[in-house]
Amino acid sequence: xxxxxxASRVPPVAADQPAVRGVMADDARAPTGAQxxxxxxxxxxxxxxxxxxxxxxxxxxxxxxxxxxAQEALVRTWxxxxxxxxxxxxxxxxxxxxxxxxxxxxxxxVELTDRxxxxxxxxxxxxxxxxxxxxxxxxxxxxxxxxxxxxVVEIARLLHCSETSVRMRLTEARRxxxxxxxxx
Length: 184
Description:
Layout: E1 19-20, E2 23-24, H1 33-60, H2 63-79, H3 87-106, H4 125-132, H5 136-147, H6 152-159, H7 163-182
Antiparallel strand pairs: 1-2
């Protein structure tokens, strides 16, 4: 499934596609509710896939698996599109849960010498290792805020805590990272 989506499960997202489910792009009629939903999801997919797959890559260290997880999260988001009020939040929550399920199922063994491969593109390897060494209660908000680019309010909803708690965790994580960074 790496790199592809089943066409029957997700609406087409090709930017150069002249028709959307049989409705020509130059059609003067207003789109129906389903067509509008498909168009909204297509735009959502284009806008969010890179960030979501980058987040999954940061969690897994495996690019093909990260893309699969991001695609599956977006497929599940599409399946509930009409009922989800915050689709970005929902997609990241689904991706996080799918990644956790993968960890439980596979129980991968990561050697310490391989940890440098887990840094996200554009992230200093030493910083990635320092973030990995944070306790989970600090690491998770850092990853959601700085790698997934989620605002504090969304992180608070995902972690079922207050915005103040998220800010305090981010502050503590920055303090610890600064201390480690100063030791270099």
